[in-house]
Specification:
By secondary structure, the chain is mainly β. It is built from one helix and 20 strands. The N and C termini lie far apart (about 60 Å).
């Protein structure tokens, strides 16, 4: 995995995947390199966007790790080309991930949305982004934090973050975790605002706007139904909203 001519490259000798995006110096990028053994496919993602895909002629075969060690910062045993810059949050997993499905079976769908300038544009009727199978969020009294940047075009009853239960039963719970109403903080339209919501059974639910605490509840219990939950950004699903109960927090006396 190297940078050649200001572009990202992943190669197994003669099998190479060359990216098309030109990298700028003094700029942070999130890079993902994927190799799928079953399809013998190399993939490069830059800031979440697929930059290169290549189906190789033969699988990667490393039989002597002492001869080809894992090296960060320069190429070896080839000519010594060194990386000049910062590297942070490096991780390695031993399976092939893709953009829609991870090892914990968390998958996503998006309706009437556009990925624009590294953000989700939701400006059409019933446009939303949805990701499901969040197991830990469904556990009672489990601590959680949501952090999101928003740039609203309107603030009249708009839903930001909506969560409901993954269940086939007729009655399930759901809740608008973040939405606009007349009692909330005043948020400017066409302006980026950072919003954080946190929960713990000791401190209750807290809402932060641009790093400052806006309001907090009393200590309370959180009941997630002990089933995986689905998170929706932008809008709720009509048929779910008609059949769910909005009761998940129980305030302590």
């Amino acid at each position: 995995m190297t940078i050649r001519n200001s572009k990202i490259r992943i190669s197994f000798y003669s099998n190479a995947c060359d990216g098309s995006k030109t990298l700028l110096i003094n700029t942070w990028y999130h890079l993902i390199f994927v190799y799928d053994l079953f399809s013998t496919t190399q993939m490069i993602y830059i800031d979440g966007i697929l930059d290169c895909i290549n189906r190789t002629r033969a699988p990667l075969q490393i039989t002597n790790l002492s001869y080809i060690p894992l090296t960060i910062g320069y190429t070896s045993p080839l000519a010594p080309y060194y990386f000049d810059g910062l590297i942070d949050q490096l991780s390695l997993v031993e399976w092939a991930k893709n953009t829609n499905f991870g090892p914990n079976e968390i998958n996503e769908i998006s309706i009437n949305t556009t990925f624009e300038n590294n953000s989700l544009l939701l400006n059409k009727i019933k446009s939303y982004f949805q990701s499901s199978n969040f197991v830990l969020l469904g556990i009672d009294n489990r601590l959680y934090s949501f952090s999101i940047w928003i740039n609203p075009f309107q603030t009249n009853g708009t839903i930001i973050l909506y969560i409901f239960q993954n269940s086939s039963i007729n009655t399930k719970w759901c809740l608008s975790f973040l939405r606009f109403n007349s009692q909330g903080p005043y948020i400017l339209t066409y302006t980026w605002t950072h919003i954080v919501q946190t929960y713990s059974s000791i401190n209750g639910v807290s809402l932060y706007i641009n790093g400052s605490l806006f309001n907090a509840s009393s200590p309370c219990d959180y009941h997630g139904g002990n089933t995986p939950l689905t998170i929706t950004l932008g809008s709720y699903i009509d048929n779910i909203n008609e059949t769910c109960s909005n009761f998940v927090f129980i305030q302590e006396n």
